[in-house]
Amino acid sequence: MINTINHLKHLLLLQNFYPLFSLIIFPLFMLNSCNIAKNDPKKALNTISSPFYSIESSADTLQFTYQDLNPYIVNGLAWTPLVLPIKENILIQQSDFLSAFWQEKDDPVLPPIDGSCSFINNPINEEKNAQKGPLKLVNFSSDSADPSKDAGEIFFLLNSETLDPFAMLKLNIYGQAKCFISQKNYRISSGFGKLRNEKDAQTNASQQSVPFSEYSYLSFLPQRVDGIYEGDLVRIGRSLSANVWTNLKDKYNEGGFFIPTKISNDLFVSGNFQSKKMGVDEFMQTSILVGNTPFKVKLETSTYQIAIFRKNKMVCLKSIELKPEEVYDFTCFPNEGQTEDDIFENEGQNFYFDPTFYPFSILDSIHFQRWAFSFPNNFLVTSPLNIRNDYYKEDEHTNFQKEFQFLFQNSNNKLTSILGKKYNILNFDKINKQSLDQYYLGVNSSIFSSYINTVQNYPKDIDLIGIPLGAVGEKSLALGAVPFSAFTKFTKQNLGEDFLSMSNVQASNGTLIKIFEPLPITNNGGVLTSFIQQRFRFRVVIPPWNSTNIVEMYINGKIHRRWILDRGDISKAYSQSIEDVTNEKGSFSVRWIAWGEDYLPDFLTGSKNTLPLMITRDYCIDTLGDGICHMELQK
After folding, report:
1. What is the pLDDT of residues 602-627, one digit of tens each?
2. Strand pairing partners for 425?
3. What is the largest distance, in Å, between two alpha-carbon atoms of the chain?
4. Residue 261: count of CB within 10 angstroms of its CB
5. What is the sign of the dihedral through the CA atoms of 388, 390, 393 and 399?
């Protein structure tokens, strides 16, 4: 209900804002439409677009609120899936990422204000905690030499029997917090992941010390000379080296400390076997978006693996060992050889987007729009005029079509605009198997989905599947999936109102297919001209740490040929050119699918148990040379 009210308020604001804004902006569109540069296809969209609502924010950071997460969280801790620093030179603490603790569905407990506590009502805790007395005010203080350094940190009190949290507290500027407690025995837990500190509270004591680890700081300066760009995304993983385990053992032997309890849905979660190959034992669920302002991140002292993504592409992976109290100025540059395949294609005609709906608290922020459009060929999509509750449910379990419109940034005035054309996305099992131009969700961040299983396991039953779209998905995003980890790529020379149906489209979570022959016709990238000889030449490009090793070619929905790739070391980028010749009579369709049998590293995707998958649209092959798809005419 809260979500619906907020969305309606947003629409009213948009409605009131639109007339005045349009009077100012539309004349600019008309002037600019008379002088469209040939080397900038997005300028052609200016004349068929409308201004999109943008607001400034006075907050230090932009992140998901508990209302944004409420449709998806049932119980336990929930962390914002992404955070964008807005104010200059702010310090971000890991505690800042906590949105709420859900006691049950639609019943979140918000983080406490500085110096106080919030209680978690857990029936199991109540049943198994017989040792309770009268309420007593307890003062908690950080055990650091300078307690004020831990200001703003959140820690938990655990039931001594169940080891489940029953209260969370937040330190004030002096490193202190107060709380009325009736439990005689309980544990104190601070920190995150496997570096949590846990100790027994002193029985009936009114003064309690809270253990905190040594901290270090990562400093990010989004200047290109440092290899960090506005529009990048940061993933933080850490390696639990022998030194870390030694320190934990020393604390345990000192007495009073325990090997830390695993708190459900912690900020740091264990990586899968592919992540551990990368040196990532556990990773932070929250992704950090890089805006145009410098910022610092406070972390426990340890060894970290930092990945930098430029939307859908990892451009850097760097291992650093932080020392106590160190401020590490982070720089990162692409490894040689990882971007060499860009020369095989004109990236100026390639565009990337993700039809995942972001909450309006994120989407209408001018800061997020700047992040999204910081590179010229990135689109963001939304559906600002048609809001239904089913949009916020899991993609596969809704019976409604998902509608979206394109957002893009005008090249001339840097204003975010929305196109009038609406696109409908169907679930895979709802599409007409005889259509070349229907849209469906072809790849998303979860492998447990009907369309991916169908594509991989029952390809012979699919004749024409139309145009696939890649998306992270609203639920997966809320649960920590990395933005743009599943995406759609399209290639189009001339962008018109219905450009997507006339484009070369593929959906992927990493791997891409670059087609050299036959060439698409100029006005419709979904039709390939091959009327002299049916020769196909393409190149499969696989990014580092992507486990794709199978490429398949389908003709009229039936597998034509399969190639097994000799990947070797998957930590390296891989590409291979492939050729094939067919001898079909009449018009026919072709599509390519690439996939793998090993999971992707969840450190890079933010989603568990995701297999690599890339699928292209069904291309209509023109065998007459007239540039017409005769398969469509035969319907």
Report:
1. 999 999 888 899 999 999 888 877 77
2. 402, 439
3. 90
4. 15
5. negative
Three-state SS sequence of 302-366: CEEEEEEEECCEEEEEEEEECCCCCEEECCCCCCCCCCHHHHHCCHHHEEEECCCCCCHHHHCEH
Sign of CA dihedral 390, 394, 397, 403: positive
Q: Do residues 192 and 267 make contact, with C-beta atoms less than 8 angstroms apart?
A: yes
Rounded Cα–Cα distance for residues 524 and 502 (Å): 4
pTM of the full structure: 0.87
The pLDDT assigned to 247 comes to 59
Tell me the two tokens of residue 13: 């604001």
Q: Which of 1-15, 42-56, 171-185, 409-423 has the lowest mean pLDDT?
A: 1-15
Residue 202: other Cβ atoms inside 10 A = 14
Cβ atoms 237, 278 nearer than 8 A: yes
- CB count in 10 Å sphere of residue 106: 12
* SS3 of the chain: helix, strand, coil, percent, to 5: 20, 35, 40
Q: Strands 207-210 and 132-142: what pairing?
A: parallel
- How long, in residues, is the chain? 635
